[in-house]
Amino acid sequence: MTVDDVFASDISYRHEREETVSGVLVVSRLLTFLCPSEEARDRCILVNAPGLRDLWVTRIPPMAGTMVAYTGIATITGQICKTGLAPVPYAFVAVRSLDFETSYGMRAEYPAKD
Q1: Which CATH number belongs to the domain containing residue 30 in this structure?
Q2: What is the pLDDT of residues 48-92, one digit of tens each?
Q3: How many domains in the chain?
Q4: Is 114 inside any structural domain?
Q5: Which residue segment(s) compose the domain that 59 sits in?
Q6: In which element (H, E) is residue 34 found?
Q7: In this predicted model, what pLDDT tens digit does every residue of 37-52 receive, in sequence order?
Q8: 3-class DSSP state for residue 77?
Q9: Closest by CA position to 33, among listed 71, 81, 85, 83
Q10: Closest CA to 89 of 3, 2, 4, 7
Q11: Does residue 23 sit within a domain?
Q12: Could you give the CA distance from residue 40 to residue 57 in angstroms, rounded to a whole number?
């Protein structure tokens, strides 16, 4: 499933629905979200992944000179629902797995698999 598929789906406010969604992941200190592309950040899915940025900082170098620490292609599996918030109408409320690759080929995952 893609981010666009989520926006066209019947996902409700209930938390039981597990989905696997692919898109562009944007990670900052305070927010993490999944969007359809670098250019289309107006349709985003909020990602609740506590400690993600701090975990990845210990494993791969963050981007410099911007509020965004990481961007790249990601696939997330977890529980997703509607939020009721206009700017981010959907959210992963629980992330079971997240696989990520930066544009320069570095890979990371969440939760970490050591």
Answers
A1: 2.40.50
A2: 999 999 999 988 999 887 889 999 999 999 999 999 898 899 999
A3: 1
A4: no
A5: 3-102
A6: strand 32-35
A7: 988 878 899 999 999 9
A8: strand
A9: 71
A10: 7
A11: yes
A12: 26
